């Protein structure tokens, strides 16, 4: 059996090797913990600088992947050099279409660490070719794109993982265990907050056009950078993470941090899609880039025996939510990894969540940070009845690669991460239009605003890129 077919069938390496059990494990070096190259996943990487570079290193460090191709529209720029030096003999491409076309037979999986708006076409093409995909959060920029990605994952039967790594750490397993044990139950309200300074804070909110054009760097393929979205004249505030500031390109603070803060509550409280998103507060509204501060109320209906839930999201340096008595310290959480552009900025309130249930209040951080019961005295009283939380069998990157080989189920697969990402698209729409969104969960339509409903699909794709919406 060819190794590509072996990985695509989902048959585990252990099961396949058992056919030849008369061969001692030491022949393959397994007794020394070595993983033979034939057992590794051949991984192509789209985006190799900044956050994408960190993803590649994390996937490589699992020892479960062979890096077989590198792709970046700005190949050779300063932020790409570290990865290029790590893998000097690996084939390099600027165009992901060329990479997948030329190296189809050599690629088992693709990691996508490009800007939010370009996740969609790369992921759709890869899945249509039978490639497993690891995609940085959020999955995509529009509601429809996420919907198409979820459908394609089912159609092509590939392993998928969104890059909210807390879904493979203590936060995930504790929330799951405490929910199943009835410690977390009857939740009615959640406060989610990210009050760190963002890239666009302090910008002039009265602007009425995009920035004036600047010369395009020699290393950058600016046309290809756009993929499916309409053309914009080059400006330095569109690249190297600055794309996150603009509605046309990114998903703001909500898309960036929501997947690290709201993910486990969304997953284990079975929230699905909201029926209403209310922009309670929008400070510094602008049609081009994200607000200086926003408060969004996401309302979810009753689910089986679980009561309705409202998640209230706060961003903005001074837009601090009220915290309950006994909340405790506000120090920087050591479990939050620093951003690719430097240290996490101190905030008046660290990124995290407060979960209000009928009987208990839980305080949580971001990423893999676990919950605590507040006030602390209440938590101490309950220690004896708290269930043991199992350790994670693999980190998020190893979980994906093992998912490619059928050895584990991906914990943030598109069927899990997709509805969560769609929640963010609805929130961003409420920010952008500064209006309440009423949403029909069954029909997946916005019922109170025609323009908003049209924005579920985003704008028409750029000429020549229509095919990705038909894969």
What's the helix and strand layout?
Layout: H1 3-9, H2 13-18, E1 41-46, H3 51-61, E2 65-71, H4 81-86, E3 92-93, H5 96-102, E4 109-112, H6 119-128, E5 132-135, H7 143-156, E6 160-162, H8 170-180, E7 187-194, H9 222-225, H10 252-261, H11 263-268, E8 276-283, E9 293-300, E10 309-315, E11 352-357, E12 361-364, E13 372-374, H12 376-381, H13 396-404, H14 414-433, E14 437-440, E15 445-446, H15 450-455
Parallel strand pairs: 1-2, 1-4, 2-3, 4-5, 5-6, 7-10
Antiparallel strand pairs: 7-11, 8-9, 8-14, 9-10, 11-12, 12-13, 14-15
Describe the protein in words.
The protein is α/β, with parallel strands linked by helices. It has two domains: 164 residues, NAD(P)-binding Rossmann-like Domain (Rossmann fold), CATH 3.40.50.720; 272 residues, Dihydrodipicolinate Reductase, domain 2. 28% of the residues lie in helices and 16% in strands. It has a nine-stranded mixed sheet. Strands 3-2-1-4-5-6 form a six-stranded parallel sheet, with helices on both faces. Strand 5, helix 7 and strand 6 form a beta-alpha-beta unit. The chain is globular and about 60 Å long.
